[in-house]
Amino acid sequence: MTTLSKKDIENLLPHREPMLLIDELVDIKKLFSATAIVNVKKDSFFVQGHFPGQPVMPGVLIVEAFGQAAAALTAHGLDKETYENKLVYLMNVEKARFRNPVLPDCKLELKIEAIRSHGRVWKYKGEAFVQNIKMADAVWSATIVDRK
Questions:
Q1: 31, 43, 72, 136: most buried, per Cβ within 10 A?
Q2: Of 148, 136, 139, 129, nearest to 67 (Cα)?
Q3: CATH node for 2-146
Q4: Segment 62-88, tens digit of pLDDT
C-alpha cells in the first residue's frame, strides 16, 4: 500500500490552499480504496465564521473532502497520460448523512471506496471518522473532463 503526502496530492489535483482539504492519502489500494486524512485545525479557514464561538466543519466541506480524496485516488491509479490536463468534477451526491459535528483540532479520517466506473464517470462511497466515531457518510459520482 502507498501513502501520498500533501505535496504528492498537489501534483495530482488542481486544488490549492485554502481549498485543498486533504493532508494525506494512506492505505491506498489502486483504483479501489484509500483513507484520506484531514487535519481540522483551530485556524482552518471556515472556523471564524462557522460558527463564531462554537466552530464546526461545514458538512459541504466534508463532502468536498470526500470528492478530493476520490479524485486523488483515481488520479494516482490512472496512467499519467490519461489524467494529464484533466479535472474531476462532482456530478451528484446521492446520499450524505451528517451524524456528529466535526470540531476543530481533530484528525478526520475519510475512508473512501470506488464502487464502479463507466468511461469517465466514477461512483464512490465514503465514511468519515474522528477517533473511530462515525461523523458522516456519503455516496457520490464524479466525472473526468478535459481542461479548457
A1: 72
A2: 139
A3: 3.10.129.10
A4: 999 999 999 999 999 988 877 788 888
The continuous run of DSSP H or E covering 60 comes out as: helix 59-77
C-alpha grid cell, residue 83: 489524467
Residue 76: active-site member = no
Residues 6 or more apart from 130 whose CB is under 8 A from it?
100, 102, 106, 107, 108, 109
Question: What is the domain partition of the chain in residue ranges?
Answer: 2-146
| Sequence-distant contacts of 105-109: CB under 8 A, at least 24 apart | 105/40, 105/41, 105/42, 106/40, 106/130, 106/131, 107/37, 107/38, 107/39, 107/40, 108/37, 108/38, 108/39, 108/40, 108/57, 108/62, 108/65, 108/135, 109/35, 109/36, 109/37, 109/38
Please list, in sequence order, all residues whose beta carbon lies within 8 angstroms of the beta carbon of residue 17, skipping any fewer than 6 positions away.
Answer: none
pTM comes to: 0.95
